[in-house]
Amino acid sequence: MERLRGSDPISLPEEFASGLAVTRDRLGIFAQQILWYSEVGSTNDLAGAMADRNAAEGLVVLADRQTAGRGRLGRTWASPSGAGIYASVVLRPSVTVATLLTIAAGVAVAEGIASATGLSPHVKWPNDVHVGGRKLAGILAEGAVGHVVLGIGINVQSAAYPPDVAARATSIEAELSCPVDRGVVLAECLAALASRYRELQSGRGGQVVDAWRRRAAPMLGRRVEWESAGTYQVGLAENIDDDGALIVKVGGQTQKIRSGEVRWL
């Protein structure tokens, strides 16, 4: 695995090296630069700094532990050592591709977990992967001039999460009641992401959106609450449009939510 100059990664653990080696032919742009750290503040911050220094598209930054991991809207992402997959990748998409990047990532992570474990995760707009009503994984896309850093956090082992997290989260091992190979899960997620990213780049975003809708079926039809123009509104989540916006029915009309906080009721 190639190392970037000026970085201080350590050798990729065998747990990850073996899983990635098996799927190397399917990793696409993610096969060349994979950097491992025992501890970082945030993989997104580190990958973003490298992207600012012209790191190539496809760079993957992995950590065993994050001390300042985060999700959307600045929320803390609990990242205990050895308990999860904490990864960020550098992408340089066109504006059109970037529009559907979070949707594609959610589909890919759900597909990768399914391939590696046999679970059947579903997705929740805009960036969560759930099993049995509990959060299993999250995605954070952060853009800057010339690049997007896509962060992926997956709960693999049961861990001592903070109480507010433990009440709404689950892990792969908790769902399976047996140990799981983090390397295999990561490799399958990266392979699925490479495939879905190629679809976006080749103008087949409709296939990605259709796949998301299938994965989101258990969530659609539920009530959601969001803030608009300083007031809170409630409606029924019906679908997403072809650009990834959430379509919500309010009374006899529909509205589209493209960003911001949505609370599922």
Summarize the structure.
By secondary structure, the chain is α+β, with helices and mostly antiparallel strands. It contains eight helices and twelve strands. The chain has helices at 14-22, 43-52, 95-99, 101-117, 163-166, 172-176, 182-201, 205-216, and strands spanning 34-37, 60-63, 84-91, 122-124, 128-131, 134-144, 147-155, 223-228, 231-240, 246-250, 253-257, 262-264.
Would you write up a description of this structure?
This protein has helices at residues 14-22, 43-52, 95-99, 101-117, 163-166, 172-176, 182-201, 205-216; strands at residues 34-37, 60-63, 84-91, 122-124, 128-131, 134-144, 147-155, 223-228, 231-240, 246-250, 253-257, 262-264. The protein has 265 residues and is an alpha+beta fold. It folds into two domains: 14-216, BirA Bifunctional Protein, domain 2, CATH 3.30.930.10; 223-264, Roll (SH3 type barrels). Helix 4 (101-117) runs antiparallel to helix 7. The longest helix is centred in the last third of the chain and has 20 residues, at 182-201. The model is unreliable at 1-6 (pLDDT under 50).
List keywords for this structure.
single chain, 265 residues, alpha+beta, BirA Bifunctional Protein, domain 2, SH3 type barrels, 7-stranded mixed β-sheet, 8 helices, 31% helix
Q: How would the blueprint of this fold be written?
A:
Layout: H1 14-22, E1 34-37, H2 43-52, E2 60-63, E3 84-91, H3 95-99, H4 101-117, E4 122-124, E5 128-131, E6 134-144, E7 147-155, H5 163-166, H6 172-176, H7 182-201, H8 205-216, E8 223-228, E9 231-240, E10 246-250, E11 253-257, E12 262-264
